[in-house]
Specification:
Blueprint lengths: L1 H20 L4 E2 L14 E2 L13 E6 L2 E4 L2 E7 L2 E8 L2 E8 L4 E4 L4 E5 L2 E4 L2 E8 L3 E9 L4 E10 L1
Parallel strand pairs: 1-2
Antiparallel strand pairs: 3-4, 3-13, 5-6, 6-7, 7-9, 8-11, 9-10, 11-12, 12-13
Length: 157
C-alpha cells in the first residue's frame, strides 16, 4: 500500500505540474504580423509579416516586444542602402551593401538606438530585394543587451 500511495502522489503532482506549465502559450505577439496570436503570452519568434498589401513598414521584435516604426526611410549612398526607423524614442538603423542582397550585420552596419545612446550590433544577418519602386527584406541582430529578431521592412523609393 505504501508504494501505491507514493506512485499515486507522484502522478498527481506530475499532472498538476504539466497542467500549470502548459497554461503559458507561445506564439506571435506582434499585432502587425499576419499570424498574430492574441492568446499568446510569449513571443516565440514566429511572426510573419505580409508585404503583399503594399504598406510601407519597418517592424521587428526587440527583446520579445513588438516594435513598429512610425517614421522610417531608405536612402542609397556610398554603395549602401541605409534603412532606418524610429518610434517613441527607439530606433533601428541598417546599412546594407547595395551589391550584396544577403549578408552579415555587425558593429559597422546595424544599431539599436535609444534616447541618449545607441548599441552597435555584435552579429546578425539580412536579406533584401529591390525593384524600381521599393526595397523589402528581413533582418535580425544582437547587441550587448538587446535581441532584435523577426525584423522586416518594406519602403518605397
Amino acid at each position: 500500500m505504501f508504494k501505491f500511495s507514493n506512485v499515486f502522489t507522484f502522478l498527481l503532482i506530475s499532472i498538476l505540474f504539466l497542467s500549470l506549465s502548459s497554461c503559458k502559450k507561445d506564439g506571435c505577439t506582434n499585432p502587425e504580423a499576419s499570424n498574430y496570436n492574441s492568446e499568446a503570452d510569449e513571443n516565440d519568434g514566429s511572426c510573419v509579416f505580409n508585404f503583399n498589401d503594399q504598406t510601407e513598414k519597418l517592424v521587428a521584435t526587440i527583446n520579445g516586444n513588438s516594435f513598429s516604426a512610425s517614421f522610417f526611410s531608405v536612402t542609397q549612398e556610398n554603395g549602401q542602402y541605409v534603412v532606418s526607423g524610429t518610434d517613441d524614442g527607439i530606433g533601428l538603423s541598417l546599412s546594407l551593401a547595395d551589391s550584396v542582397s544577403n549578408g552579415s550585420l555587425n558593429s559597422n552596419t546595424a544599431s539599436y538606438v535609444v534616447t541618449g545612446g545607441q548599441e552597435a550590433a555584435n552579429s546578425g544577418s539580412y536579406s533584401y530585394s529591390v525593384n524600381s519602386e521599393e526595397i523589402y527584406g528581413t533582418f535580425s541582430f544582437e547587441t550587448d543587451s538587446h535581441s532584435i529578431t523577426t525584423g522586416q521592412f518594406r519602403v518605397d523609393f
